[in-house]
Structure formats: structure tokens, C-alpha cells
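Please produce the structure of this protein holding heme C.
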Amino acid sequence: MKLRLIFLGACAGVTFAATELSAADATPANGIVSSAPIYVPDFSHSGDPIPDGVLEWSSLMQTTNAAADQESVRFTFSFKNAAKRADIALVTNLVTAADSTIQTNVTTITNFTPVSVAIGSVHASCGCTQPELPPLPWVIPPGGQGEFAATVNLEGRSGMMIKSITVSTDKGYKDLYMRITVLEPVIPTRTDAERAQDMEIAKADRQAVFKGDCVNCHVKPGAGKYGPSLYNAVCGICHDVANRASMVPDLHNLKTPTNEEFWRTWTAHGKPGSLMPAFSTSDGGSLTDMQIATLAAYLSQTIPSQPVPAVTNPPAK
Ligand code: HEC
Ligand code: HEC
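Below is the modeled complex.
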């Protein structure tokens, strides 16, 4: 004689609290029975690290380079829901031995059932990172796949940086990393002959930089930019290059006091009779009042308003 008693439901291993309501519980008023079960996530474990193998990520750390004038960089994270619930069944066999005594053999059977995972929140390590997600909680069905993007704003950034986003689910949380290296600006080069010619053209018309081929290097790089990236695109090309002409001053070491109005006026109107163009659109330049305002704000914040004192040698004895 063989008796089998099965006790299902003792859970072990990767166990998750969640309720899968059956379709019968979710019968809508119109009587149509939906086949998809309604998943009711329990976020009480969202503060614990997610166990391995629950969500399979395409990558936990993504690395990219960005051009110096790039406004932002967008990353895509994709994942697969591999979560399983382990149900352990205790199987008790009652076996009649030769001597007619009844012996009890207990064994276990483990069943793995794929389960849903719910993403409850996603937080970025800084305000510069904007995750793009569907409405939360976002329930990924058993075995399902998902993908979301995160955009890191690079305005005013340089060098290497690491940003992270924390994805909190009902099975725990995971940190995902993005490593971005902002490359050094690529400064277009001009041959000596081209330069001499440009200079002649600019001497005759300081607004020439806004015309003809000159726009490729002097105007287009600034399109749609503001603040520091606008400065690098349209001002740095003349003021911050090592081999700039001697009449182009170093704006970081001016000999006169400066303020926001100083920067605004010089940018908007330049100086007639010099090579400094007038950038305001009302003067025939390429920048809107808004762009000029962000430049003036940026320059007055980053460049000292008082002249940098000249280094004087102590008097000789
Ligand atoms: C291929 C890109 C490019 C084009 C096109 C270009 N420039 Fe330039 N320009 C530069 C760079 C780079 C500098 C910085 C100095 C250098 O490296 O030669 C510069 C500097 C200048 C200067 C400052 C003086 C100096 O040489 O340092 C003036 C004035 C000027 N350009 C006028 C013009 C005019 C006018 C035109 C069109 C006829 C023009 N540029 C076309 C890239 C360009
Ligand atoms: C085509 C080259 C060129 C470009 C582009 C350029 N500048 Fe200039 N800038 C000059 C030259 C040349 C002078 C010197 C004018 C003079 O003779 O006093 C100058 C002078 C200045 C001064 C006066 C500094 C002083 O001596 O007090 C300021 C401020 C200035 N530029 C700001 C800017 C800003 C901001 C931008 C970008 C929006 C810019 N410049 C773009 C060539 C340029």
C-alpha cells in the first residue's frame, strides 16, 4: 500500500509577497472576464537590494563619450523579468514494510513559478538626470521585457562623471550607472593663408563672421545654445584659443572691472572699428536677447568682477 500526502505552499528560496488575484476576482461589471490576472505589488521590500537573477539587465554600467558641445546624452536600459517564486511541496509517502509496520518517507518537490515584478519608483543621483518611464507602478509580467531611457544634461559639464539611477521594485532595488566622458572641444583649424584672408574680411566688416562660409565655424556651433556651452561655441573660438591674434584680449584676465551689464553690452554691440562683432540680432548678429542674457549671467558669475592684480616684483634693494 502507498499513500501520498502532498503539502503544497511552504515557500522557500526566492520568495516574494504579492497577490495575484485570479480573473474571477477581477470580473468587471460588464461580465467580461479578463484573462490577465491583476497584480497587487507589495513594496515593503523595495529598500532591500534586489536578489540576483530577478531582473536580467542588458548592462548595469553604461559608458559613453560626449562631444564638448553636446547638450545631453541619452541612455537606454533594458531588462527581462526572470523572477520566479519557489514553491516547496512536502511529499509524505506512507509505505507498508514487509513486517507490516507503516513507515513514513518525507521528500520535497520544488516548483518554480515565474512571477510579476513591479517597478514602484526610479530616482536619479542628480537633478541633471531625467529618467523616462511609463506610469508607475510599472508591472512587468512573468518573463516579460522592459526598456526605459534616462537623459543626462551636460550643460556646463566637462571631464569624466558617473551618474546613477536607483530602480525600486517590489523585489528590492538596483542601482544602474552611467559613465560619461565629455571630450575636449575640437577647435576647427584655419591655415595661415585662410586666416590672413579672414582677418582682412573682418577688418573691412566686423560682422562678416555672421555671413557666407564664416557661419560654419562662427555661428552654427552656437545655434540653440545658452550660457557656458554658448560661450565655448561662439566666444571661445576667438578669445580662448592659444594662437589667437594679438588684438583679441584674454577675457579671464581683463584690466577693467566687469559686471553683468558690461558683458551684455559688449556681447550685444561689440566695438565698431575693431574685430569684436555685435552679436545681437538687432545689430545684425546671431544671438537672441535671451542667449545674450544667459552669457552675461554666466560670465559675471565665473569671471572675477575686479581686475586680477598684476604680479609686482618686490623693489630691488
Ligand atoms: C573652419 C572654421 C572657420 C571658418 C570657416 C572661419 N573661421 Fe574665423 N576663426 C576660426 C578659428 C578656429 C579661429 C581662432 C584662431 C585660429 O585658430 O585660427 C578664428 C578666428 C577668427 C578671428 C579672430 C582673429 C584671429 O585670427 O585670431 C576673426 C576676426 C575671424 N576668425 C573671422 C572670420 C571670418 C570673417 C570668416 C569668414 C570669411 C571666418 N573667420 C571663417 C575658424 C574659422
Ligand atoms: C571674431 C573674433 C571674436 C569673437 C567671435 C568674439 N570676440 Fe570678443 N573681442 C574680439 C576682439 C578682437 C576684441 C578686442 C576689441 C578691441 O579692440 O578693444 C574683443 C573684445 C571683447 C571684450 C572687451 C574686453 C575688454 O578689453 O574690456 C569683451 C567683453 C568680449 N570681447 C566678449 C566677447 C564675447 C562674450 C563673445 C561671444 C559672444 C566674443 N567676445 C566673441 C574678438 C572676438
